[in-house]
Amino acid sequence: MWAGRKVSVALPTYNERASIRACIDGFFATGVVDEVVVCNNNAAPGTSEEVAKTGAREVYETRQGYGWSCRKALAEATGDLVVLSEPDGSFEPVDVLKLLSYSFDFDVVLGSRTNSELIWTGANMGWFMKWGNWAVAKYLELLFDTTALTDVGCTMRLLSRDVLRRIEPHFRVGDSWFGPELTLLSIASGARVMEIPLNYRQRVGESSVTGNRWTAFQVGLHMIALITEFRTRRWLRPALLPQPIAPRTRSEHGAPAAAAAAAAAGGGESR
Ligand SMILES: Nc1nc2c(ncn2[C@@H]2O[C@H](COP(=O)(O)OP(=O)(O)OP(=O)(O)O)[C@@H](O)[C@H]2O)c(=O)[nH]1
Ligand SMILES: [Mg+2]
Fold first, then answer.
1. Which atom, in ligand 1's list, is nearest to the CA of 11?
2. 156 C-alpha to center of ligand 2: Å?
3. Which one in 49, 105, 148, 212 has a CA-CA gap of 20 to 30 Å to 255?
4. Rounded to an integer, what distance in angstroms lies between the CA atom of residue 7 and that of residue 203?
């Protein structure tokens, strides 16, 4: 629990048999995670056995793809705050605390993997990946004149349940470029969105998406097309997107800070 709110972690899995157990245990070890939902996306043999040794709940998605898998995991998560992540060892479970600390002020807290200080030795975030993600993130930021963004492909992020349930009906992407769709819909919904730097480490096992530069480049092109199409759709058919909640005033912005103060005064509890 975090300030009286139930915390879920949603994990897609495809080829993470060797790392998924430590990842799940790591999330529970933070003391604030109430539920871990793993979506098995035709995952490597032995994955379910590893998940069964943990406190996580496993669900299945047969439609192949990162987006399909994330969507199913998010749909099954029951928390008031839902953290999406990957079980490949590239993210630090303890970073959930950083995301949660911003949940008082923001409905959606995105992670960024492009801060040089937090890129670990061996992480798949060389020059091409770092500046490619940065450039596409800046393109999105510019087109939507939105919160400062430095990464467009970071899976790890936090969404409030309210925002998640409002944008879920609008999901369309089942492939590797689902991340920016989640970001775009969050922005379109009028949610308060923030991005913070997260640790990014070498993944355990083989990367099947961005490990290959040509595949990564193609995913990048899909992301650019998605962002451009979304901008056009928002101009031409705004009624088809989630309707933004009413603009907030500065005084309304004080409410999350009050919740933070209440939590600091003892409102938070651990499992
Ligand atoms: N490649 C792939 N990943 C899937 C699929 N379904 C779910 N996933 C999950 O998507 C995540 C991304 O796959 P990775 O192989 O880690 O890709 P990556 O090269 O590390 O890509 P980034 O994490 O975006 O840097 C992993 O957590 C997988 O478990 C699928 O069909 N294919
Ligand atoms: Mg990965």
1. 27
2. 10
3. 148
4. 25
* Ligand 1: centre distance to CA 218 (Å): 15
User: Could you tell me the residue range of the domain that residue 198 belongs to?
Assistant: 7-249
**How many structural domains is the chain composed of?**
1
Residue 183 lies in a domain: yes
Nearest of 216, 107, 213, 207 to residue 153 by alpha carbon: 216
Does residue 66 line the site of ligand 1, with CB under 6 A? yes
User: According to the model, what pLDDT value does residue 95 have?
Assistant: 98
111 lines ligand 1 (CB under 6 A): no
pLDDT per residue over 109-162, tens digit each? Answer: 999 999 999 999 999 999 999 999 999 999 999 999 999 999 999 999 999 999
Closest ligand 1 atom, residue 208 Cα: 15
CATH number at residue 113: 3.90.550.10
State if residue 153 touches ligand 1 by the CB under 6 angstroms criterion.
yes
